[in-house]
Amino acid sequence: MRASRGGRPPGRGPRRSLAVLGLALALLTGACAGGSTKGPGGAEATPESASARAAAAGKQLAANTLVPLEGKAPAPELPVTVDSSDGRKVTVTDASRILPLNGGVAEIVFTLGLGDRVVGRDITATFEEAKKLPQVTKAHDVSAENVLSLRPTVVLADTDTGPKEAVDQIRDAGVPVVVLDPATKLADVTTRTTRIAEALGVPAAGKALNARMSSELAAARAGVPAGSKPKVAFLYMRGSAAVYLIGGKGSGADSLLEAAGAVDAGTDAGLDRPFTPITTEALAAAQPDVILMMTKGLESVGGLDGLLKVPGIAQTPAGMNRRVVDLEDGVLLSFGPRTPLVIDILVDRIHQG
After folding, report:
1. Where is the Fe/B12 periplasmic-binding domain (predicted)?
2. What is the pTM of this model?
3. Which of 32, 100, 122, 353 has the fewest beta carbons under 10 Å from its own?
4. pLDDT at 327
5. Are 213 and 241 in contact (CB under 8 A)?
């Protein structure tokens, strides 16, 4: 199963307003005092500060915009030759017309400050800055004709970008195609950012973005209450297609839940595959305190009330207490610059009583 992932660079107005929001949040976090606890990183945290971070993260995700690195946009230093995950060496000589064939990759390119060079988008690039760009995919299939009509100077793909014939056609037309490994866990975010930045000739910007994300993740994890370790089951559902799956080892959600101070219920129950069909037996073994879902997946089964009608759900602690957390499809497993916002929200919502 392939999980859902992730036009114009934001102007000074949105960037300034987000900076002000960040400053206000920092002041609020620093001002909160009574009843503080130490998070995993040893930083002071309070329920109030964790909730404030989650509220700010929720607003930013609702706006569906990105926050580029501060300062002047980096200037690519080219040519560069990089390793491609299809076993090739690829030389990039021009990054004036970039085409990312993956939403998560596009998020990284925009956040590096190169959004004004992006000429098209994949169907999974749903953030606001990309919406006006021409789409070059249908479902997840790439149209070589659509790609080549945009005259890209470099294409960024991943190993499951296809069909293979289309990728070959783009490469045969003389366009450098850099293939990346998919990001399936939190640790992949920095690796992917580094590789993209290197391929576009802006390695220093990649280091700066990784440092920013590392700081944001540490701040989010500091809000985990001491001694709290809820069991959370990630359910992937598409009611209209009768797809009902529970996540296990390698689902991607397991990595996020670990970072948020929780136990992945599927993995804990011995599910050693990324996804397993939901059964009453599997749910009984998992016994989640909280259920995590993608928003559209929850909607597809009729919301919380519909979810509780799925056999076995209502009998779990999560079902009995109606503890369900949902996050937007294109963000939850995007593993990119907005992932720290996901952790902010998870830390706040899964540790509530």
Report:
1. 97-353
2. 0.84
3. 353
4. 96
5. no
